[in-house]
Amino acid sequence: xxxxxxxxxxxxxxxxxxxxxxxxxxxxxxxxxxxxxxxxxxxxxxxxxxxxxxxxxxxxxxxxxxxxxxxxxxxxxxxxxxxxxxxxxxxxxxxxxxxxxxxxxxxxxxxxxxxxxxxxxxxxxxxx
Length: 128
Prior knowledge:
single chain; alpha+beta; Beta Polymerase, domain 2; 4-stranded mixed beta sheet; 4 strands; about 50% helix; globular
């Protein structure tokens, strides 16, 4: 009985680890598609950072994909215009993406306790 239970637990742990690894690859693939869409709109990207539940491992089937997109193009862009570009890039992607657009200077100058500070401290940079 102990051997069977141990095998079942080992199998379950393996399945969980495999599912998490596959989820990470899927999320990276979705983010890369999103970045390609942004690039096709004329936005060059310096850095992309995954944050929130997918970054800290607390995601559920209903979680959205939170990313910070750092681009020089966002430097002088109004908030509404950033939202337009970020929203257009999500078209055709069958997963909910919640993106924030940030210029490099905004990213570097973020104050403690802000969302950008949280992204800097706990986010995961996605290689693009």
